[in-house]
Amino acid sequence: MPRYDFRCRSCGATFELRRPMAQANDPAVCPKGHGDTVKLLSTVAVTGAAGAQPAPAAGGGGGCCGGGCCG
Ligand SMILES: [Zn+2]
Question: Is the pTM above the cut of 0.90?
Fold first, then answer.
């Protein structure tokens, strides 16, 4: 179940809720009882990242160390 972060504009508290996506836009109530909350963008990875992942830096040239250890 996705997790959503909320921030209370009354007391400034941030809290998170787990709720079905169908209720993602439902109003959330602050743990202290305030109803003036806003939903924050969370970093939950719901879908796979479509961006390119950084390729590992490959060492150029041959040789295991570039020094004298290989002979
Ligand atoms: Zn509050």
Answer: no
Q: How far is the CA of 12 from the centre of ligand 1 (A)?
A: 6
- The answer to whether residues 16 and 6 touch, using CB atoms and an 8 Å cutoff, is yes
Q: What is the pLDDT of residues 31-66, one digit of tens each?
A: 999 999 999 876 555 555 555 566 677 665 556 666
Q: Which residue has the higher pLDDT, 66 or 3?
A: 3
Rounded to 5 degrees, φ, ψ at 21 are -60, -25
Ligand 1 midpoint to CA 4 (Å):
16
Tokens representing residue 39 in the block: 């939903």
Residue 1's identity, in one-letter code, is M
Report whether 42 contacts 1 (CB < 8 A).
Answer: no
Question: What separation in Å is there between the alpha carbon of 55 and the centre of ligand 1?
Answer: 44
